[in-house]
Structure formats: structure tokens, C-alpha cells
Amino acid sequence: MRQRFRVLLPLLLLLCAFGCQKAPEQQADPRWPVTVREAVIEKIPRRVVTLSPAATDMVVELGYGGRLAGVSDYCETPGALGEPKRCGTALLPDTGAILALSPDLVIASASLPQETAGALSEAGIPLLVIRRADTLDGIIGNYRAIATAMQGEEQGARAAEQLEYFANATLSYLSETVSPALSEGTSAVYLRQMPFVIATGDTLEGKWLSSLGFVNQAESFAGWDYPLSAEPDLNPNYIFCDTSISLADLQGSDYYRRTSAVTNLRVYPLNGLLLERQSPRMFLEWEAVMEAAFPEAFASSQKPSVVLPMEPPPPPEPEEKSWWEKLFNRS
After folding, report:
1. Entry pTM
2. What residue spans carry the Basic and acidic residues bias annotation (predicted)?
3. How many CB atoms lie within 10 A of CB 309?
């Protein structure tokens, strides 16, 4: 009996030693928590609710569309993403629908009503507000904020760097191509909605017209409001307008039918939603409309062969490709 105990004792001690050891602690993800504007995000957001089409577009185009659990009533999502739950809007959110999804993050284009904001806070759900930007730096900052919220500071900085490079390269190319093709004093307007919702001097679109060498006829006004009292002076050489406005509409308008742009058929439509939502695709839309207006200038211009850095480090988690990765057929 004693001999058997002597044999078993070392084995029992060894098993006890192994059993008493603490399980190794799971290594914390160094990217979290992260603070983005007013939102403190404790972990990687895998279920996200967006409450505006602009926020949804930004999330999808950064490559995070697969995380969308809910969207606003007015959002359009790619068919590959299925049918995320509709959750109202930033102004009229469906608080119950949002809470039922148990999201890790809610992104809105404006502050939410106090009742909804309080319910999210009580549930421990961070709210990130991404307002429409008035400058290019503001647009880049918005994309940085969303990428940071989704994957941490490093990925946020990388996304901002890529978008800034892309935007500056595209806008510089357009300016270098269009400006030499304009006669001194060539005027233009960007008409978002009939009759006088026009890009004024304080708007991003108005500033872009000026940067290309046009005289923006709404330069001295603000807030997309061209006053009726200034209508006699409204005689642009070019009209760039939303696709909801046709040449026939302008030809039938007492305000526009006699303008130089309409009589000379220099009216060029573009997708105003891309500009309104500040999608990165708006730079390509801006390029396309200028190419339509000045085909000869673009025929002899040298477009940048590389618009974005092509070899950023891969993201920590597998994600849907961003729109620019698809654009350049990156593997």
C-alpha cells in the first residue's frame, strides 16, 4: 500500500500543479477603447446603425458595409448587404428598433432627440455624430472619424491619408486642365434646385467652381440662397446642375432661358446626391462633368496614373473592399 502511494503521490502533485495554474488572460486589443469626438468606443463595432444616407455611404465606401445592422428609412444599400433594419432618421429615430438590434455603435448626421440619446447612453451604446462638412479638410476629417471608430487610430489615419491624396490629386488635375481652357471672366453656377438654390461663395461646390477658374455668379451670397433681386444679373456662361433639372426645364424658365449657358447649350447635369452626401465618388462626378464640358482640354491632358497609394497594410479583420480598392481592381 505504501509502495503504491509513493508511486501515485508525484502524479497527484503534478496534476494539482497544473490544475491550480490560472488560465492565461486573453490579450487585450490595443486599439480599444478609442475616443472619437464625443463617442467613447470600448470594442470593435461589429453591429452598426447609421441614421442618414450620408453616413451609410461613408461606412460602405470605407469597406465596412458588412457591419450594417440598421440604416435610416432613406438609405439605399447595395444588394449584397441584404436588407438592414430600418430605424427612422436622425430627426425621428425609431428608438425601439435601434435598441432591439443591440448595436455596438450608432452613427448619425445630427444630434439625436434627447429621449433617444438618453436611451442609447443608458444601454451603453456610443453615438458618433458626423455632420456635413463645409471644407475639404472637414470631409477628410469625417472619414477619419468613421474609420477610427471602426478600426482604431491607425486605420483612421490611413483612410484619411488615402482620401486626402485622392482628393488633392483629382482637384489639382481638374484645375490644371480646366483653367487654361477658360477665357477671362468665364462665369458659371451650380444649380442644385430650381429656381435659385445655387452654390454660393461659402459652399464647398461654390469654392470648387472658383478653384477651377470660373467666376461663380453666386460668389457674394451665402447659404445656397441666390436672391430674386439679383436675378437680372444672373447670366452664366455655364450651368452645372443636378440631374433632376433638364435643359427643357431651363429653356422653359423665365429666369434662365435667355442666359448665355442655355442659349449656347452649355448645360451639364451631375449627380447632386454624391456631392450632398460627400461621397468620395463626388470627385469622379466632378471630373466627369468637367470632361463633358471641355472634351478637347481633357483629350490633351495627362491624367494621374495613380490616384491612391496602392499598398496600404491590410486591415486587422477581413472586410468588404472599399470603393477605391474595387475601382483599381486591387487584390
Report:
1. 0.82
2. 318-331
3. 12
